[in-house]
Amino acid sequence: MYALKLDQARRQERMKRARRGRRLSLAAWIALLPMAATVVFAYLGTMLWTARVSMSYSRSLPTNTFAGATQYVRLFENDRWIVSLQNLAIYGVCFIVVCLAIGLLLAIFIDQRVAAEGALRTIFLYPYAMSFVATGLVWQWILNPELGVQAVLRHMGFAHAHFDWIVSQRFAIYTLVIATAWQASGLVMALLLAGLRGIDEEIWMAARLDGIPRWRVYASIVVPMLKTSMSTAFVLLFVMVVKLYDAVVAMTQGGPGTASEVPGKFIMDYLFNRANIGLASAASVVLLATVLAVLAPVLYARSRVSAMAARRGERT
Q: Gene3D superfamilies in the record, alphabetically (predicted)?
């Protein structure tokens, strides 16, 4: 009799726990509804609306006149758009390579347990807290031939010193790389430093016992183990490349001429200044397709690596 009552009490307790778990699960789903609605309507909805407008003859205001691929044909016949894509490719490669290189070197430097490590982390990461507009204005002053580095060098006696990249057709795009890499390298440093701190200490102990130089351990063992951190940094940097707009406006206004024109500025100019919503929407869709084409394989490969690592962990 006692055993029967005990069994009934246990069943009732399990039922109570199950009901409590269902209530918590329902509460969690309800809490997620605002975010889900935002994703569906504010993100997916606006993407579909932009794609629809890009297939119309919309000018100042959206219209329902179907134009098919006309806007896309006009877009790729526009020399300014082609130049902006070329500039973005140059900027993107240089920006990502420089940020990854500087961020890795900074992370390795701080990983040596240097003095005032916390202060150095803050100093290196601080530029990322600034807006790209502020960064652009500061670097516009630094690179100004009449006020910045060139003027300082000439006042120091170097009469023939030249550093006028910001007004040069050939080098203007690289001034954007300098300014934005200065701002974003600290973020890469923080991501890679977190990965370095996750490296098993036994690896370093074994390397010391075998007499392997420290640089060799980093180059052959540690850096290849940072694939996940590197891929995360790459994704974030690539998104910054595609979103590049405010630093261009603050520093060069896309000039001189179209030397630093980028797709973001092209889209905003045609959307607001030239009142051509259809062409601006087509450019936005092309830019979105480019992002998906580049990031989808990276994210897929990253998920495969994570899944394989999880399976190896289960076997062990």
A: MetI-like
Residue type for position 287: L
Q: How far apart are CA 215 and CA 34, in angstroms?
A: 50
Spatial separation of the C-alpha atoms in residues 177 and 237, rounded to whole Å: 12
Give φ, ψ of 116 to 5 degrees: 55, 40
Helix (H, G, I), strand (E, B) or coil at 39: helix
CB 193 within 8 A of CB 121: yes
CA 105 vs CA 102, 108, 146, 214: distances in Å: 5, 5, 33, 14
Q: Which parts of the chain fold into alpha helices (H)?
A: 2-37, 45-53, 70-77, 79-110, 117-125, 132-143, 149-155, 172-197, 201-210, 214-217, 227-242, 246-251, 263-268, 277-315
Indicate the pTM of the whole model: 0.83
Q: Token pair of 220, please?
A: 């052959």
Q: Which residues contact 266 (CB under 8 A, 6 or more apart)?
A: 80, 81, 84, 283
Which one-letter amino acid corresponds to residue 121? R
| CATH fold for domain 79-199+226-315 | MetI-like fold (1.10.3720)
pLDDT digits (tens, 9 = 90+) for 180-232: 999 999 999 999 998 888 888 788 788 777 777 888 888 888 888 888 889 88
